[in-house]
Design a protein that fits this description.
globular; disordered N terminus
């Protein structure tokens, strides 16, 4: 299962590369989904080891990709997917425990306000929690201090990261990295991934975009997105 760049973590080091990356994404996934990359997003949330973290991943997206008619309407470019999902690792399984949308209203003074309203019961009226058994991938949990804030997708970088490997809703393994270790892990993951058939397939798809088919740029692009293209830890 390929976990597409809808839910991607992006860090772009140079302005030129940033521009080309955004253009390439626009060509690949379209304008509406690219808004999530151009604009900073409200993250999903997850409780892991009793503590709540932001998620640089969106485990509900495979469900809504298959069932687009069920997706909440987008109300903001800062929330292109239309909702914020709340998850928890319970007895080594990934569960959805709530889903909220941003609702606009006018108070008694005529002031414009927004609040978060749960829509979970609209989808799951009889279940307190739902196992996300359709999801396989590596969840990214950034935490600690912000190393660099970038008003773009999930592009801001943090001092610490948890990575959780999930297979069909089952929690397999957790890894903890500081910022530098996280960058090194992505490089190791990419070196293994580029030897696979899945890498060749993705490379070929990107190569078909004639205006942006530079080999060096494509490899750098896939390297940036490697965690979102791979569903397992491929290296120590």
């Amino acid at each position: 299962m390929r976990y597409m760049c809808d839910c991607t973590y992006i860090y772009v080091a140079h302005n030129m590369k940033k521009t080309l990356t955004i253009i390439l994404i626009l060509l690949i996934i379209g304008v509406s989904k690219a808004e999530s990359i151009i604009t900073a997003q409200y993250p999903d949330k997850i409780i892991y080891n009793g503590k709540e973290f932001n998620l640089n991943s969106n485990p509900l997206e495979p469900y809504f990709d298959k069932n687009p008619e069920n997706r909440p309407s987008m109300v903001s470019t800062a929330l292109w997917r239309g909702y914020v999902g709340y998850f928890e690792i319970i007895e080594n399984e990934l569960y959805l425990t709530d889903m909220k949308i941003s609702v606009s209203y006018t108070d008694e003074d005529g002031s414009y306000k927004q609040k978060w309203s749960s829509i979970y019961r609209l989808y799951f009226p009889k279940q307190k929690k739902v196992k996300i058994d359709w999801f396989s991938g590596i969840l990214i949990l950034p935490h600690g201090k912000i190393v660099e804030y970038v008003h773009q997708g999930y592009a801001s970088t943090y001092s610490k990261y948890w990575l959780l490997e999930i297979e069909n809703g089952i929690f397999n393994e957790a890894r903890k990295y500081n910022n530098k270790e996280f960058v090194k892990f992505k490089k190791r993951q990419f070196e293994v991934f580029k030897k696979t058939e899945e890498y060749k397939k993705i490379y070929t798809e990107l190569k078909e975009n004639d205006e942006y088919n530079d080999d060096k740029f494509i490899k750098s692009f896939i390297s940036d997105f490697v965690i979102n293209y791979t569903t397992k830890f491929l290296t120590e």
